[in-house]
């Protein structure tokens, strides 16, 4: 049974997805710069930035928040007068072991707020929703039952209910960089007849890099002209989903289930021949948009195929009949993250004052490790393989034990030297003498 009940998207009014809604011609543009939309957008930008692993991003967002009322008012007035300008962004290359670097586009915070406001307006529009929301697509869409847990649940449900025995999973090659942006914008324009909004959306999704010259040959990894959208822009997943609406609908049915999470997809079926035929159809549909996917017969690290009973990995999860567990890479990442947090503290243990200034004392470090473990555990709460968690806990226990031995060894040394201040700093416990000193009366004055 397919995950899609119908191949034709319907609007709330019962018309086709290409129908043009009535209303004021600039109503969508006005919604973007409404103060409530801008505040909602800012909360999303702040939440994402403050939880980033990059300290520079944390700092920038925290600093911007100190004068947020004036910032939002300035954005509001510029949009109101039609004078808001998107500034050139920063192209950042994120290294990946054994792979090409990931090209991330980092826009200025005001630009991110407006992009997010545009996204809020798009996602609240019932006329455009049928283009991107369907039971086969789970990434980049807000709503209950979506995201990675929703996609994994759909895959597992298909395996159980449809008695599928074979799969092919693949990844669309350089998806964001190759999205035909003009095609997607034309689809959106067909249901949102607001020229001001269309112009703002075009500018919000255009990529101009401030550091293009310094990137060198890697510049080809970033979008250019009318082809491609930015990784790092909140609008990009939505544009990708709108583009692949037909892909999702055509690949589901006739004994085949296809589940997609942005650029990752898996095809499930009862026979190997059917699954391979569906994959050929997928390649044909992608080619219509200038896209392609990795062939599991040629590229093993990007795609795979086989029998369900042997298990497979999809979206960072290992799926076997009756069992879902975090995949090998996420398992290694959590161990590496804990080790990195402990190592940063341990490297400064011989200089407790610098350790304290860097906020890497034992108390802060163990709290950091605790938050890392909590976040990872919550991310994979939908998995049911408890044995994997026990195994990971044993590895974490070993890392913490070694760290604690290093802490207690140095603490004992400082205590033997009667250097109790260093002992406190080693633990990360504040010394009152290190507090701010801003007396209203000079203690040396007569």
Gyration radius from CA atoms, angstroms:
26 Å
Largest sheet: 4 strands, antiparallel
In terms of structural class, how would the helical and strand content be classed?
A: alpha+beta
**Strand ordering within the main sheet:** 4-5-3-6
Overall geometry comes to globular
Question: What are the defining features of this structure?
Answer:
446 residues; alpha+beta; Alpha-Beta Plaits; 19 helices; 9 strands; globular
Molecular structure report:
This protein is an alpha+beta fold. It has three domains: 27-124 and 181-227, no CATH class; 134-175 and 233-321, Alpha-Beta Plaits, CATH 3.30.70; 325-432. It is 50% helix and 11% strand. The strands form three sheets. The protein has a four-stranded antiparallel beta sheet, with helices on both faces. Strands 7-8-9 form a three-stranded antiparallel beta sheet.
SSE arrangement:
Layout: H1 27-32, H2 35-50, H3 55-65, H4 68-80, E1 90-96, E2 99-106, H5 109-123, H6 129-132, H7 147-162, E3 166-171, H8 175-178, H9 181-191, H10 195-205, H11 212-215, H12 236-243, H13 245-251, E4 256-261, E5 264-269, H14 272-287, E6 304-307, E7 312-314, E8 317-320, E9 323-326, H15 328-346, H16 352-357, H17 362-379, H18 386-416, H19 420-427
Antiparallel strand pairs: 1-2, 3-5, 3-6, 4-5, 7-8, 8-9
Helix pairs in contact: 2-3, 2-4, 2-5, 5-10, 9-10, 9-12, 15-17, 15-18, 18-19
């Amino acid at each position: 049974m397919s995950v899609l009940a119908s191949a034709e998207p319907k609007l709330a009014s019962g018309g086709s997805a290409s129908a043009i809604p009535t209303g004021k011609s600039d109503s969508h543009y006005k919604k973007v710069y409404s103060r409530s939309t801008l505040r909602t957008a800012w909360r999303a930008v702040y939440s994402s930035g403050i939880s980033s692993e990059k300290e520079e991003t944390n700092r920038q967002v925290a600093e911007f928040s100190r004068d947020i009322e004036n910032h939002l008012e300035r954005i509001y007035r510029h949009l109101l007068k039609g004078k808001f300008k998107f500034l050139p962004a920063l192209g950042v290359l994120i290294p990946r072991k054994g792979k090409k670097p990931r090209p991330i586009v980092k826009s200025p915070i005001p630009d991110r707020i407006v992009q997010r406001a545009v996204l809020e307006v798009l996602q609240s529009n019932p006329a455009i929703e049928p283009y991107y929301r369907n039971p086969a697509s789970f990434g980049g869409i807000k709503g209950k039952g979506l995201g990675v847990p929703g996609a994994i649940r759909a895959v597992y449900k298909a395996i159980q209910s449809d008695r599928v025995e074979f799969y092919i999973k693949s990844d669309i090659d350089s998806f964001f960089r190759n999205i035909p942006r003009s095609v997607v914008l034309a689809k959106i324009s067909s249901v949102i007849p607001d020229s001001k909004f269309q112009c703002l959306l075009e500018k919000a999704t255009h990529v101009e890099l401030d550091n293009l010259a310094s990137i060198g040959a890697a510049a080809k990894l970033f979008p250019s002209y009318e082809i491609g959208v930015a990784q790092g822009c909140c609008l990009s997943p939505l544009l990708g989903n709108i583009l692949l609406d037909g892909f999702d609908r055509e690949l589901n049915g006739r004994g085949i289930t296809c589940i997609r999470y942005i650029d990752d997809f898996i095809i499930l079926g009862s026979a190997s021949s059917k699954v391979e035929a569906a994959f050929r159809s997928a390649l044909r549909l992608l080619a219509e948009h200038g896209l392609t996917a990795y062939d599991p017969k040629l590229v093993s690290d990007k795609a795979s195929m086989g029998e369900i009973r042997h298990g497979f990995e999809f979206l960072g999860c290992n799926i076997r009949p009756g069992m879902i567990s975090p995949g090998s890479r996420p398992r290694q990442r959590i161990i590496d993250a804990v080790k990195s947090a402990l190592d940063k503290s341990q490297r400064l243990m011989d200089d407790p004052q610098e350790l304290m200034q860097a906020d890497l004392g034992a108390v802060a470090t163990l709290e950091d490790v605790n938050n890392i473990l909590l976040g990872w555990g919550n991310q994979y709460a939908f998995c049911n393989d408890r044995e994997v968690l026990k195994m990971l806990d044993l590895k974490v226990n070993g890392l913490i034990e070694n760290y604690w031995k290093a802490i207690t060894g140095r603490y004992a040394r400082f205590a033997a030297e009667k250097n109790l201040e260093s002992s406190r700093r080693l633990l990360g416990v504040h010394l009152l003498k290190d507090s701010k000193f801003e007396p209203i009366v000079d203690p040396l004055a007569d």
